[in-house]
Amino acid sequence: MNTLMEVQNISKQYKTKKVLDNISFSIYGEEIVALVGKNGSGKSTLLKIIGGIIDSDSGAVTRHVQSLKIGYVPEITPSHVLFTPEEYLFHMGKISGIPRKPLQEKIDQLLEIFNMLEARSTRITHFSKGMKQKIMIMQAMLEETHLLILDEPLSGLDPRAQNELEKTLLSLKEKGYSILLTCHETKLLENLVDRILLIEGSQVKQLESFSEASNQNNQIVFEFPSHKSLDSVLSFIQINQMRTLNNGNQELTVTVKSRDTDKALLALLQHEASIKELMPLNSKKEQFHTHF
Amino acid sequence: MMSLLHYQFSNYIRTYKYLPPFFIFILCTVVNYAFVPNPILDSYSFTSTLLFLLMGWFTVTIFHAEDEGQKVITILHAKGQNVYFVTLYLICIVIGFCLSCVSVLYPIIIGAFGERPSLWHIILGFLAHFSLSILAIALSAIFTRELVKNRQNSWWGVLSILIISLAIASLKSVILQVKGLLWLLPPVHLSLEMMSSDDSINVIPAGFYWQFIWIFIYSILVIWLYFFILNRKKKM
Ligand SMILES: Nc1ncnc2c1ncn2[C@@H]1O[C@H](COP(=O)(O)OP(=O)(O)OP(=O)(O)O)[C@@H](O)[C@H]1O
Ligand SMILES: [Mg+2]
């Protein structure tokens, strides 16, 4: 993976309140990174520093790609935009200094990606929150961008709008964009995000994402003749519980990684074990939810 | 810069917030000249004071025309906040210029004056209107949302500074007792005094030009102060 951008030892203090303390992490190409944390933990502050809206007190944001362009979508969605999407995007593009012709092409292309072709000439004031949010993402993409910074893009949207926006974001990732977003809804992170960074006590920690199969475990309960040996499967299972049944067989409850489950089952069956129960364990997810 | 200007202007037009001050301006101008004949400089003196107050109204609505969240985005596209606020000032100045022209030319066109105004009357009238417009813009902008967070305070601030500036004209004898103070206060009184000259003047005294120049310099200093405070507050 190629590194797009590196955040190095960033600190930020508002008056006497230290919000960010010596934070460092990197963003890679074609990935979606979520920044999570409690209200007031400094998520927006960090995004503003990366987006160049405010300055940090110390530290640097190093761009590893030549002329890396960052598109920034603020936390507060403007509600009184008195233009249609087409007019609005055209104005914003012109202000950025994009010539008329490529700008018009870009706008058409964006309207299509975001599925907004029908609404192109309705005033934004009349839009739903989800549509406004899309327009805000589109304006950030007018110039050739590599990294999109979205501050709570999904908040305030109903599940359907969230779903749709999520799909759009995934399609952007496929098109080669990287996305750094903040989010409070953990459910959404599951399907969308490659990596999760947690801000806590002005520090950043990387959480392992539960979306990766390797982090998920399954629980298997099986019956097993006591005279047989389990050695060949023991390498990838972890025994939680073992008891002897009346018929002399053993009943075992074991934990196995998702990716090893098929292998374990096959080995167990070959050793004349009888499977009673198989169910997914989401311990990581349970741990994860305690962060909110 | 041109596209930013175009955007800001279209946005302002769509807010319709210019309508109340604009109608008051039209109404007062028409009513003021409803009866003929009128004295020239006296009438100009009145309409320039009116324009001074209304330009405060225009300035606040122009500076507050864009959605606050959108402002951040627009500044990002414009790649700098100074150019953003310069365009707002330019829009104010253009409006001030147009209304100054209307104020000066309307009575001439409908023939509302007792005698034919000379070129000197027209130049003096225009300078009085335009200089007071610029002064009102400069003073009012200080109270807009970048420097004064509370909307209520913006309006009270603008109203008080404009009225105080006008009141200085009549309190001049008191203020003169503190040496140098008069130079610090907004020089509205200069224009009002010049406009109280007799209509029979047939040449503009050189001192008048200097007084107008001082009004413009004073406005420029106040606008500079705005940018100075703005850039110090920036990037908090
Ligand atoms: N301009 C400012 N001046 C002073 N303090 C500020 C300023 N902006 C933010 N703060 C403080 O910095 C802290 C972090 O704010 P920030 O907006 O980054 O939090 P957040 O994680 O985005 O919260 P939320 O989840 O509510 O969006 C907060 O305690 C806030 O009060
Ligand atoms: Mg925030």
Any overview of this molecule?
- Chain B: Keywords: Membrane, Transmembrane, Transmembrane helix.
- Chain B: This is ABC transporter permease.
- The complex is a heterodimer of chains A (292) and B (236).
- Chain A has 292 residues and is of the alpha/beta class.
- Chain A has 9 helices and 13 strands.
- A 6-stranded mixed beta sheet of chain A has the order 5-6-7-3-8-9, sandwiched between helices.
- Chain A starts with a strand and ends with a helix.
- With 236 residues, chain B is mainly α.
- Chain B has one domain.
- Classes of the chains: A alpha/beta (292), B mainly alpha (236).
- The interface between A and B is medium-sized, with 25 and 21 residues.
- Adenosine-5'-triphosphate (ATP) binds next to helix 1 of chain A.
Please outline the helices and strands.
The complex is a heterodimer of chains A (292) and B (236).
Chain A (H helix, E strand, L loop, with lengths): L2 E12 L2 E12 L3 E5 L6 H9 L6 E6 L6 E4 L11 H12 L3 H14 L15 H12 L6 E4 L8 H16 L3 E5 L3 H7 L2 E6 L2 E5 L9 E8 L6 H4 L2 E8 L5 E8 L3 H10 L3 E8 L1 H7 L3
Helix pairs in contact in A: 2-3
Chain B lengths: L1 H14 L3 H14 L7 H24 L4 H11 L2 H29 L9 H23 L9 H20 L1 H4 L5 H4 L3 H8 L10 H28 L3
Main beta sheet of chain B? none
User: End-to-end distance of chain A, in Å?
Assistant: 30 Å
Instruction: State the share of residues found in helices of chain A, binned by percent.
Output: 25-40%
End-to-end distance of chain B: 25 Å
Features:
heterodimer; A: 292 residues; alpha/beta; Rossmann fold; Alpha-Beta Plaits; 6-stranded mixed sheet; 4-stranded antiparallel sheet; 9 helices; 31% helix; elongated; B: 236 residues; mainly alpha; 11 helices; binds adenosine-5'-triphosphate; binds magnesium ion; ABC transporter permease (chain B); transmembrane helix (chain B)
Summarize the structure.
The complex is a heterodimer of chains A (292) and B (236). With 292 residues, chain A is α/β, with parallel strands linked by helices.
